[in-house]
Amino acid sequence: MGRKKIASTISRPSLANVAARADVSVAAVSIALRFPNTKRVSQVTRQRILEAAAACGYHPHAAARELSTGRTFLLGAITPLTPHHVEAVQSAHDHAAAHGFEILHFGANVAARQAEALDICLERRVEGLLIASVEKKPSPEMLNLYQQRDVPMVALFSPTEGIAFSVLCDTGLAALLAVETLRKAGHRRIAVLACPAHHTGVECVAGYRRAMEAAGLGPENRRVVATDYAGTPSTRAAIRALLQERLRPTAVLAAPDYVAVAAWQEAAKLGLRVPADLSIVGIGDYHLGQTRDGQPDQIQVYVGDCCMPPLTMVREDRSEAGRQACALLLQRLNGPDRTAATDMAR
Description:
Radius of gyration: 25 Å
Low-confidence stretches: 4-10, 337-342
Helix content: 40-55%
Order of helices and strands: HHHHEHEHEHEEHEHEHEHEEEEHE
Number of helices: 12
Largest sheet: 6 strands, parallel
Number of strands: 13
CATH superfamily of the largest domain: Response regulator
CATH architecture of the largest domain: 3-Layer(aba) Sandwich
């Protein structure tokens, strides 16, 4: 005896279901869900609609919305996979969501992968892009990709040729403040650890030199040590060589923060006490998380807190930089102004 096929259908909750539950019109539901910041629906009504949608299990149908509006409400983010960039993109995502957009984030640590991610974003018809280039100067191929795409772009953390708008952290100012702090503590021989291939490193060294010159400290008190943009073996070898010099520095400035942590670790291996024998100041101090999640007395934890004693850090608000970058991108989507601009997040 053969099996009898039984056709079954699973009905998706609709706008009408949500409208009925919230006791509003279908149009009000559509407006409230598509445009979170609209003034056409009061906040009280919007909250009632959101609660009704959650109770019904309603989720907007992306394909249907694209067909009806001609828009995807998607943004792309292409960045290296570092804690700094992840923190920034998370903040950008929160800001985008509050304005009815989603972000597709691609972690790409090499230029070839960034080019692939750019193609995927364009295939998905993203309306705008946040890009943190892994190259100080984009290759001709990447530059061609940037210039040929009629998609608004904002560069994050590093000004990028071919992208007119950018949001940066003022690392030069951070370095200047760090050197001034070390000088007030009595230090004269101050070294800087920075990556010359990255915008952050270039700005750090520039700020360091300005501060040393302003303090009247000549070349005999300065040491600029080139590192990678992380605590790699070559970075650690450079740090050990610096700390073993006959006239080693009494203080070190490091950018980014995980190079400062590497300096702290290498100093400990050489028997140097921080800060008694060597003072270390880092730039960045990325956010690791928080304790007692959801409680009023939750404590924010940063990378400098992982050392003992905790390292002094000049904290750059990467989360705010991500929010500003997303706000600038949405502004470009909603306005005609496409002239170059750079915002500094401090």
